[in-house]
Amino acid sequence: MSPEECLHRIADGDESALGALYDQLGGLLFSLARRITGNDREAEEVVQDVFVNAWRNASAFDAQRANATTWLTSMTRNKAIDRLRASRRRLPAAPQDAEFMPEAVDPAANPSQIAQSDDRAARIVGWMSELPPNQRQAVELAFFDGLTHPEIATRLNETIGTVKSRIRLGLDRLRQKMKGGLE
Questions:
Q1: What is the domain extent for residue 98?
Q2: What are 32-51's pLDDT values in tens digits?
Q3: Alpha helices in 38-147 (DSSP H)
Q4: Number of domains composing the chain
Q5: Assigned domain for 49 exists
Q6: Closest CA to 42 of 3, 115, 93
Q7: CATH at residue 79
């Protein structure tokens, strides 16, 4: 069953569809949340929040506006950035190097689910690497580091308009690559 079908069944109250959706996208969403927050525990909480939100608001999903993966990754990104910003306000923490963090694997996941999640992540990383360096950097700062447009402009010593343009162009290129690429 596709993620879109899962969401439609979740909207009808089918709990097993929520499990199926988690099996399909949980690893991808966790990887994204961990990349943004730099913390496994925070990433787990973000993913839990996303799936609770999906359960409560599945009827709000509109397949005409976005596919299910895009809808859930957007929710994950937004919730992870919110947590990151909240933690920055509470207490500055020592940054963690995500490159050296062990990959978390759901012990209940079967090898094909793990491979599918790894394949999706690898494709996204590949597409990101194909972006021009200035667009890739702006997209990474916005989506993975959770910086605002003004913060990115300051860091890159560019105008906000330039930053917004680079992000928009980068996302447009990624969108073209992703059409049909994650199904």
A1: 3-105
A2: 888 888 888 888 999 999 99
A3: 40-57, 68-90, 111-130, 133-143
A4: 1
A5: yes
A6: 93
A7: 1.10.1740.10
